[in-house]
Amino acid sequence: MNKLIIPTMLCLAFVAGAAQAETVVIVNKANPASRMFSEQAAQFFLGKSNMFTPVDQAEGSAIRAEFYHKVAEKDTAQVKAIWSKLVFTGKAVAPKEFASNAEIKKAVAADPKAIGYIDKAALDDSVKAILTLP
Amino acid sequence: MKRLILASAVLAACGAVHAGDVTVSGFGTMGVAKSDTDAAQFVRYNQAEGIGDHARIGLDTNLGLQASYAVDDRLSATVQVLSRKNTSPTFTTDLTWAFLKYKVSDELNVRVGRVALPIFMISDYQNVGYANTMMRPPVEMYAQAPIEAGDGIDFNYQHALGDTNLSAQGVLGVSRGKLFLVSTGSVATYRAPVHGISVSAEHGPLTVRAAWLGATMSSNDIAPINTLVATLGALGYGQLGQDITVASGKKVSFAALGATLDWNNLLVQTEYGQRRARDKVYIPDTNSWYAMLGYRIGKVVPYYSHAVAKGAGSSVTLPASFPASGALSAVVRGALTAPEQSSDTLGLRWDFAKSVDLKLQLDRVHPHVRNGMLIYGPATGLGSVTVAGATLDFVF
């Protein structure tokens, strides 16, 4: 029985670990910011501040759902409704979406004002991490 | 209508389209609603045709398309068109906005062109069903100001003060539009120079907003009022006619105070507004308010709302010699009296798929003075009306 339970638990732990991979919030290397709180990051991704330009992961991706849950305790439908208000009142343009960590890194590396988020495992020195979300 | 559905299907299939620096996006609602009576028609404000005892799609169905072009990091151009049933019994398409936006700094931008007027809290996104919890803006409040957009200039300022986000919007322009006149079934055109300001503060889940807008309404084709003014003149009440008319341009103001709370799973949205005549004019003063309470359970938000519209007197004083009864007296006193109504709304929003929600809503509408905000009702004695509606709201 024990022999069965242990692999099962290991397997569950692995699945849980994979589902909750660490996410890092990244900015351009020229950005003077070095650290940020999750509440501050949420400001940019919810359209409340224009200081940085957010770039988003693909709609429907697991990392996107987790990110908004972690920084703002909102699900993606709530976030979409918030942006609909901003877009259709002409106050803001919704963040551009990219399909992968690599494309997000490329977009952030190319724009000094950009802010994005990727899997921690994909982090390299083309961008600067300013916040790690467990 | 077929063209509307086709266009919406094609665009929804394409999703938001990016071509170079042009972004095309849109929003829409497909709705169906009916009431429990043919004695009067339930409408959104300024609609020429409402719903009675048969299911109709015209009450809530709309489609908006928006295109933005970024010239550079600071300058962009945006146009938006909206198809819906408004002052005409058929679907019509209007240019709701067209503006150039210049980003002065990260905190300030200026827009020139046709912009939405920030009168009430959801005024500038009231047609975007997906951005709202409720199926439609409470008619008790939103009917008080049928002015939607203006041609002119506005500014948007945003500033973070610690954990509080402050924002301010100011607008100066001229609004032109149509007003549907129930008594004659006709449409009048108006012109109104407007100036207004709104300020809001957001702290965590709470947002508080205050706004004021002044308008100088003028219209020379409000047929029933023109007829009344001419009759009054012929009967020796010329001054009363001049007090009543809007042909010469009359000042009216709108003030509103609102708050929203999105705390854990609790949603609150409430607003209080006053319409006041600043010159002598037939348009009655009104007070209106609503309060909505919702609770999020996963993807589903059940909500309840109560809304009230009340008269707050008239800027016009009848001369002492004016008859207390009779046909003329009834018409004049009627024109100076605001329709009053309250309603109870029970609804459900379900975010069942990506960028689409389904709403079900029941409204129990109680007309208190005349037919309230319902149209084509009986002269007296309209009781409470129940309205049931279902909508699909989408954005792309």
Topology readout:
The complex is a heterodimer of chains A (134) and B (396).
Chain A: H1 2-19, E1 23-27, H2 38-45, E2 53-57, H3 62-72, H4 76-87, E3 96-98, H5 101-110, E4 114-119, E5 128-133
Parallel strand pairs in A: 2-3, 2-4
Antiparallel strand pairs in A: 1-4, 1-5
Chain B: H1 2-14, E1 17-19, E2 22-35, E3 62-70, E4 75-85, E5 91-103, E6 108-116, H2 139-142, E7 149-161, E8 164-181, E9 186-203, E10 206-217, H3 223-234, H4 238-244, E11 250-263, E12 266-277, E13 286-295, E14 300-311, H5 327-335, E15 340-353, E16 356-369, E17 385-395
Antiparallel strand pairs in B: 1-2, 2-3, 2-17, 3-4, 4-5, 5-6, 6-7, 7-8, 8-9, 9-10, 10-11, 11-12, 12-13, 13-14, 14-15, 15-16, 16-17
Write up what this structure looks like.
- The complex is a heterodimer of chains A (134) and B (396).
- Chain A is of the alpha/beta class and 134 residues long.
- Chain A is 44% helix and 19% strand.
- Chain A has 5 helices and 5 strands, in the order αβαβααβαββ.
- The longest helix of chain A has 18 residues, at 2-19.
- Chain A starts with a helix and ends with a strand.
- Chain B is mostly beta strands and 396 residues long.
- Chain B has one domain (26-60, 101-395): Beta Barrel (Porin).
- A 16-stranded antiparallel beta barrel of chain B has the order 2-3-4-5-6-7-8-9-10-11-12-13-14-15-16-17.
- Mean pLDDT of chain B is 93; it is low at 1-16.
- Classes of the chains: A alpha/beta (134), B mainly beta (396).
